[in-house]
């Protein structure tokens, strides 16, 4: 994917300029070739208020969330349409959180966090989140709720 965590919003939009984009609050939603969409999230005001001033400056106007619902993309061997049972087998030491109508699996992968959105027992979206904003289950829930995903 051409979306990366930590990029400034202006640069990220320039890189994905050829893709059709809709903006909803602090989310940029792009159409992806082959179906599905790419969602790029930037920290909301509510999310930033909960951070220390140093952290706030570090994440301000930078990509904090990248999710895709494209069937062409996989992460850790998980792809759209897989069962939640397969997700549990593929991710080690994952946390499960219920946010809205969705179940989210959160696992560590290098310097970022793997996010898998499951609804109705099937994977609906896969992506990554800024690890500085989702260290604890409480922070992760606040992070995911800030965009009402």
General description of the model:
This protein has 149 residues and is α+β, with helices and mostly antiparallel strands. The two termini are 20 Å apart. Helices cover 23% and strands 34% of the residues. It contains 5 helices and 10 strands; from the N terminus they run H-E-E-E-H-H-E-E-E-H-E-E-E-E-H. A hairpin with a 2-residue loop joins strand 5 and strand 6. It is globular, with a radius of gyration of 15 Å. An 8-stranded antiparallel beta sheet has the order 1-2-3-4-10-9-8-7, sandwiched between helices.
Secondary structure category: alpha+beta
* Structure annotation, total helices: 5
Query: In percent, how helical is the residue content?
Result: 10-25%
Biggest sheet strand line-up? 1-2-3-4-10-9-8-7
> Whole-number average pLDDT?
91
Task: Say what oligomer this is.
Answer: single chain
Distance between the termini: 20 Å
Overall morphology: globular
Strand-residue proportion: 25-35%
Question: Would you report the number of β strands?
Answer: 10
The rounded Rg comes to: 15 Å
Unreliable parts: none
Tell me about the largest β-sheet.
Answer: 8 strands, antiparallel
Order of helices and strands: HEEEHHEEEHEEEEH
List descriptors.
149 residues; alpha+beta; 5 helices; 34% strand
Describe, in short, the structure shown.
It is built from five helices and ten strands; from the N terminus they run αβββααβββαββββα. It is an alpha+beta fold. An eight-stranded antiparallel beta sheet has the order 1-2-3-4-10-9-8-7, with helices on both faces.
């Amino acid at each position: 994917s051409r979306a990366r965590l930590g990029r400034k919003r202006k640069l990220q939009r320039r890189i994905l300029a050829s893709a059709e984009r809709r903006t909803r609050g602090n989310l940029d939603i792009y159409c992806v070739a082959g179906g599905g969409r790419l969602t790029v999230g930037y920290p909301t005001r509510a999310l930033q208020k909960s951070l220390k001033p140093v952290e706030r400056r570090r994440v301000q106007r930078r990509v904090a969330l990248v999710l895709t619902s494209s069937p062409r993309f996989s992460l850790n061997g998980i792809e759209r349409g897989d069962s939640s049972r397969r997700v549990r087998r593929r991710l080690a030491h994952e946390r499960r959180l219920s946010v809205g109508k969705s179940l989210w699996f959160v696992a560590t992968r290098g310097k970022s966090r793997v996010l898998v959105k499951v609804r109705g027992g099937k994977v609906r979206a896969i992506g990554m989140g800024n690890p500085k904003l989702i260290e604890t289950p409480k922070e992760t829930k606040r992070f995911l709720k800030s965009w009402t995903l």
